[in-house]
Each structure stands twice: as C-alpha cells, then as structure tokens.
UniProtKB/TrEMBL annotation:
GO molecular function: hydrolase activity
Source organism superkingdom: Bacteria
Domain Phospholipase/carboxylesterase/thioesterase per the UniProt entry, residue ranges: 9-211
Alphabetical UniProt keywords: Hydrolase
Protein name as catalogued: Alpha/beta hydrolase
SUPFAM superfamilies referenced in this protein's UniProt entry, alphabetically: alpha/beta-Hydrolases
Entries under PANTHER family matching the protein: LYSOPHOSPHOLIPASE-LIKE PROTEIN 1 (PTHR10655:SF17), LYSOPHOSPHOLIPASE-RELATED (PTHR10655)
Ranges that cross the membrane: none
Family: Belongs to the AB hydrolase superfamily. AB hydrolase 2 family.
Family matches, as InterPro entries: AB_hydrolase_fold, LYPA1-2/EST-like, PLipase/COase/thioEstase
C-alpha cells in the first residue's frame, strides 16, 4: 500500500484502483490534483489481492473481486469477494480513526472495481464520512442496499463520474447505479465526460473541486 502522509494531515482519502491495476497506478492521479500545500491530506492507496479472474481466462491479477461474466449482474461482482474486500477497507477506516482521523475527515474514492468497493463500504459504514467519490463504476448487490445502508449514509456527500463512451463499464450501468441510489433516498452529484474507461483532464478539475469542498474546514 502506498501511504502519502504529509506532516500535519487531519484529512485522508482512500483511493481504490480498478481491476488489474494497483495503488501505484492511481498515484499519478493524486499528484495531478495538485491540492493546496496548506491543506495537507493523507492519501492511502491499497492494493487489491491477486486472484483468478474468470472473464480473463482465470489468469491471476489484482482484483477486489472475481467477475464471472458480464451477462448477469450477480456474476459481474462476486458478492462474497465484495464483502471480503469491503471488510478490509472498513478495517483501514478503523485504523485511521484509531490514529486520530475523524470519520468526517475521510473520503472513500474508487475507479471501476475500486468504486464498487468504495460505495459498498461507505454506504454501510456506521459513522458519517466526508464523502464518496465513484468513477466509471456500478453497484454490487443493489437489491440489498436499502436493508443494509447505514443511517449515516443518508447524509453522505456522493459524487459519481462516468464516460459516455465507456466500453468496459457501459454508461447505462452508471445510470442504473444513480437510479438505485436515488431510489434509496440518497442524493448525488453526477458528471458525464466524452471519454472511455479512463480519467480525463476536465474530470480532474471536477474531482479537485469536489474534494476541496469535502476537505476544507
């Protein structure tokens, strides 16, 4: 795990990468945000475990969960793996709190698979977090959201971002996630960009603006 921990940091962002990537793969994003020097923020970029991924012929790669097929939503994110990974991130949140970071000063962010785990964790976390940022992603086990969602999640600032031309996680899956969250009584900011399954330059500015609104005192 990459842990960028500037002196005096009272805020933290946990960044969760996509399938086949690593924490190091998201590190350039953190640098590109160029957050103000007078706002020291701790950035944690954990690595998913290596596991066989069915859709990739069973090859082992870093993945927060297996994807068995793209046809059935239940096979798109193996729930047992999702819960296992969410428990790991919840433990990381608890570790930060034990080190003195208030839950209200911690943002969970994720891209693709990482966004699935970020949302699954944040929406069930018992304490109010600073925010949830999800990029090019979807929801796992949405039919269980209303039953399992924490009371704290009702006031959670949420931002979803998606590429119009995404050919890995189609835009329709992002729309579905938005509708499922709104049906659960949640409010979220929504951004679309003329891009594929990636992070584009205009999006960086929106991420920066949203993060600063969550992190500034």
């Amino acid at each position: 795990m990459i842990d960028i921990h500037p002196a005096g940091a009272r805020h933290a962002v946990i960044w969760l990468h996509g399938l086949g990537d690593s924490g190091a793969g998201l590190a350039p994003l953190v640098e590109a945000l160029a957050l103000p020097a007078d706002l020291p923020v701790r950035h944690l970029l954990p690595d998913a475990p290596e596991r066989p991924i069915t859709i990739n012929m069973g090859y082992k790669m870093r993945g927060w969960y297996d994807i068995r097929s793209f046809d059935d939503p239940a096979d798109r994110a193996v729930e047992a793996h999702v819960r296992e990974s969410a428990d790991r991130i919840a433990a990381l949140l608890s570790q930060l709190v034990a080190e003195g970071f208030a839950p209200g000063n911690i943002v969970l962010a994720g891209f693709s698979q990482g966004g699935v785990i970020a949302s699954f964790t944040a929406l069930r976390h018992p304490a109010p977090l600073a925010g949830l940022l999800c990029m090019s992603t979807y929801l796992a086990a949405p039919e269980q959201l209303v039953e399992e969602m924490s009371e704290a999640a009702r006031a959670l600032p949420i931002c979803y971002m998606h590429g119009i031309y995404d050919d890995v996680v189609p835009l329709s899956m992002g729309w579905d996630a938005r509708q499922q969250l709104e049906a659960a009584g949640l409010t979220l900011a929504w951004h679309e960009y003329p891009m594929r399954h990636e992070i584009c330059r205009p999006q960086l500015g929106d991420i920066r603006t949203w993060l600063l609104a969550r992190l500034l005192p």
